[in-house]
Amino acid sequence: MTETESIVYDVVVVGAGPVGENVADRTRAAGLSTAIVESELIGGECSYWACMPSKALLRPVIARADARRVPGLGHLVQGPLDTAAVLAHRDYEASGWKDDGQVRWLDGIGADLYRGQGRLDGPRRVTVTGPDGVRRVLTARHAVAVCTGTRALLPDLPALADVRPWTSREATSAKAAPGRLIVVGGGVVAVEMATAWQALGSRVTLLVRGKGLLPRMEPFAGELVADALTEAGVDLRTGTSVTSVTRDNGTVVAVTDSGDRIEADEILFATGRVPHTDDIGLDTIGLEPGSWLPVDDSLRVQNSDWLYAVGDVNHRALLTHQGKYQARIAGAAIAARASGVPLLETDPWGAHAATADHDAVPQVVFTDPEAAAVGLSLAEAEAAGHRVRAVDVEFSSVAGAGLYADGYRGRARMIVDLDDETLRGVTFVGPGVGELIHSATIAVVGQVPIDRLWHAVPSYPTISEIWLRLLEAYRG
Fold first, then answer.
1. Per-residue DSSP letters for 4-41?
2. Distance, CA of 111 to CA of 31 (rounded, Å)
3. 236: helix, coil or strand?
4. Per-residue pLDDT for 98 more than 50?
5. pLDDT (mean) for 12-20
6. Is 27 left (phi over 0), alpha (psi -120 to 50) or beta?
7. What angle do CA 340, 343, 344 make, to 5 degrees?
8. Where are the alpha helices (DSSP H) in 206-319?
9. Alpha carbons 463 and 403: distance in angstroms, whole number
10. CATH no. for residue 166?
């Protein structure tokens, strides 16, 4: 017979990825007793199957590409990458898929860790059966925070499970480069993994259902990345859907809607994400299992006074850094409500409002060239009814770009609100632009007027001088 143990905490966090860890950190810092529940590795998707391993795979690719464009250096880096060394460093950055360090960190902040599947069991209750067979009922005095994230969405194709397709997990943790790889999708995971594995020795075929890549960014971002992937040897096919996939004697065969038959050693589906909420007991509190959890700006689930949904699971911004931002907001809101604060600071940019989720979300795509954006694209700004003007400048106009790389190719766009002359969005595409995006984020979040930006003088000669070129183009 399974033993049952009941324990009461101020806060129970379900999911110990970066988001859950940060909720626990903030509530513990506020003096609240906190339990955190995790069924897999502490540190979550980002640490082991997403951000860290993918960037470890991509960093040598981008560094080699940059070096090849530097006069006097390019001839030294013409050979192939040392794939074994790259994979070994990837393993190191993923901590060998062991979470000892993350566990020590949780111990350090004083949060109690429970390993096992956490499930809601009515209001303020979470059950978890641990490896020891004990069923524990964790009751929260103030809040339960669901931080379970998302999992890969696979298409509804016949017998797909028999093919054993890659998702982002397999793509970031593979032990060797497949000789031939099909990548299905046109978003961030698809283009980053196509970039990485092509450079590591795979022959990559990239199948994109839509017209181009990176559809959530400005069109020129996807166009420049597509050009670079094609130049690198990727077989890029747009307007193409997969109608069937089989595996025969180890060979994957994908058939497209045009009747093409493509053979490969592996196939990666990077076709979206779904919320990891199908098995966490949502039905016990009247919510639909497998659904996204809509929240207010304090990250509290709608129509609830105790349930919070933080990170990807609320579908506001599926990015680790944005989820950690939400976690800081949620932790502050939970602590404030627990202490009896009568009115939270939920006005725009208040301490308890995740305002940046609405119109100031930054993102970097680590391809060659990099693509980085924050805020609204031109299409999004116009659809929202803003009176705006797009200002475009090529990086070739910046002396620092030519010093950074011979033949530097890139483009920048800022979206100016014509009513108050602040920025609604900024997009950069080019080598090294990921390090520019925080300046743009500050300008967008701070609603810095153009007249004030004019006095923020960029250092010469750096690629950040693109700001001066954008402002000059706007002023005419």
1. EEEEEEEEEEE--SHHHHHHHHHHHHTT--EEEEESS-
2. 11
3. strand
4. yes
5. 98
6. alpha
7. 95
8. 219-232
9. 9
10. 3.50.50.60
**Do 380 and 338 belong to one domain?**
no
**% pLDDT > 90, the chain:** 97
pLDDT of residue 328: 98
Decide if 70 is inside a domain: no
Q: In which element (H, E) is residue 248 found?
A: strand 242-248
Question: Which residues sit opposite 284 in a β-bridge?
Answer: none
For residue 85, tell me if it sits in a domain: no
* Each residue's pLDDT tens digit, 353-374: 999 999 999 999 999 999 999 9
**Tens of pLDDT along 379-415?**
999 999 999 999 999 999 999 999 999 999 999 999 9
Closest to 143 in 3D by CA, of 363, 307, 280: 307
**Closest of 310, 333, 317, 289 to residue 16, by C-alpha:** 310
Q: Is 322 exposed, middle or buried (0-12, 13-18, 19+ CB in 10 A)?
A: buried
Query: Within a 13 Å sphere around the CA of 167, how many CA atoms are in the beta-carbon half?
Result: 16
Would you say residue 284 has pLDDT above 90?
Answer: yes
CATH code (residue 421): 3.30.390.30
Give the pair of three-digit tokens for residue 18.
């970066």
Residue in the block written with tokens 């694209």: 377
Average pLDDT of the residues in 108-113: 98
At 1 the pLDDT is: 42
Q: Which domain does 122 fall in, by range? A: 4-43+99-151+275-356
- The first and second tokens of residue 352, run together, are 């308890």
Contact 306, 143 (CB under 8 A): yes
Domain boundary among 328, 356, 384: 356
Q: How far is it, in rounded angstroms, from Cα 355 to Cα 127?
A: 33
Q: Is 5 exposed, middle or buried (0-12, 13-18, 19+ CB in 10 A)?
A: exposed
Question: Domains in the chain: how many in total?
Answer: 3
pLDDT confidence of residue 476: 86
Q: What is the C-alpha to C-alpha distance for residues 337 and 329, in angstroms, rounded to an integer?
A: 12
Residue 308 β-bridge partners: 145, 300
Evaluate whether 239 touches 226 at the Cβ level (below 8 Å). no
Of 139, 99, 103, 97, the residue nearest 118 (C-alpha): 139
Predicted TM-score of the model (pTM) = 0.96
The DSSP-derived string for 376-417 is --HHHHHHTT--EEEEEEEGGG-HHHHHHSTT---EEEEEEE
Q: What is the pLDDT of residue 4?
A: 85
Q: With CA atoms as reference, report the closest residue to 147 among 342, 353, 351, 295.
A: 295
Tens-digit pLDDT profile for residues 134-176: 999 999 999 999 999 999 999 999 999 999 999 999 999 999 9
